[in-house]
Give the backbone structure.
Amino acid sequence: MKKFSDVRKFSSVMILLLTVVLLSSMVFATTTITFWTMSLKPKFTNYITSLVNGYEKLHPDVKVIWEDIPWNVEQQKLLGAIASGKVPDVVNLNADWTLDFARRGALLPLNNLLPQDVLSDYFLTMLKATSIDGKYYSLPWYVAPDVTFYNKKIFDKAGLDPNQPPKTWDEAIIDSIIIKEKTGIYGMMPTILQSSTPPSFFGDYPLLSKDGKRAIFNGPEYVHVLTKWAALYKLGYLPKEVLGKGAWTKSTELYGSGQLAMLITGPQFADRVKWNSPDIYKVSDVAPVPLGPSKTFGAAIQDLVIVKGSKYPEVAANFAAYVTNAENEIAFDKMVTIFPTRASALKDPFFSKLDGTLPTKIRVTAAKELSHVTYVIYRIPNPHELFQALNDAVSAAFLGVKTPQKALDDAAAVWNKALSGK
C-alpha cells in the first residue's frame, strides 16, 4: 500500500509541475519579431542592444531579433526576403527607399496600427514626407537638418546687423548684394546643380502637376525665380564656380578662408571649421536656413517601416514607436549629430538651453527648424537624365545661352516626353 501511495504522490507532483509549466508557457508565450537597422554596427551596437533589452523588459512576451544590414545591400536583401515570404518585421530605410517599397505594396500603413496620440507627436511634415494618399508608411526615426553658418565679421564690415541674419531667400539675396558691394566678398554660394534633385532655389515649388504626369516648372513663377538667380550670377554676385562640379567643395573652402559670408550645410560642419580655420570659427555664428513660400526645406530622414507579411504588425508597430519615442531619440541624439522626429523630445533642455557656446547654439537652432523639415522625391523615369536636363537649362540661363523661359520650356519638353512614355 505504501508503494502505491508513493506512486500516487509522485504522480500528483508531476501533474502539478506539468500544469505549472503549461500555464507558464501560456503566460509567457514568446512573440518573435525581427528588427533590421542599416549600417549601425559596431559603433552603435551598445545603444541598439539597450533598446532591444529595454523593450523586452517591458514586454516579456516579446523577443526582438536584431540584424544590422549594410546599407549597400539592404534593398536587395529586403526584396529577396519579400520574394521568399520570410520578411523582417521592422526595417530601417531612408525616405527614398521607404516610398519605393510603399509604392510596390510591400509596406503596411501605420494609421491604424498606432494610436493617434502617438502619431500626432511626430512632426507632421516628416510623417507626410513618406505618405501616399493620406497613409503614413513610416515612423521618422532621426534627421539631419541643415543650418546657415555665417561670418559676423563680414556682416559687420558690410554694415549689416550680425544679430539679424536673413530669414528668407529674398533677404539672403539682398544681404549678398550688399556684402559684395561693400566688401568685395561673396555673400553666399547655394547648391544649384545637384544630381537627381532640383536646384535649391526651386526647393519650395513642385516640379510636377498634382497627378505627376506633367512638368510645370516652366510656369511664370519658376521663370521669375530663375531670372532672378541668373541675374545675380551675370552681375557677379555669385561665384563662377557655382556652376562647376566641385561647387560644394569650393563653397566650404571659400567660407573657411573668409571669402564667403554664408554657407548652408549640416551642423557637423562646425568641427571642420574649428580645426581647419580657428580664426573663422571664432567669428562664426549660426541661423536657420532661409525659407521660401512653403516654409519647408528638405533634409535626409531615416525611417522605420513595417513590412507587409509581418505576422505581428501591431507588435512591430509598437516596437517601432518605442525605438522612436522621445526618451530613446534623445539618448541617440546625444551620441551623434542627429535630431529627433518627435515634438515632445524638444522639451529636453539639450535642445533648448543655450550656454553661450557655438556648438550648443547650432544644436538649438537646428532643433527649432525641425517642424519645417520634409523630404521630396520625384517618381519619374530616368531621374538622372531628367534632372540633368533641368540642370542644363539652369546653366544655359545663367550663362545667357538661352532666356530663362526658353531654357525651362526646353527642359519641360524633355520631361513631358519621358513622362508620357514616348
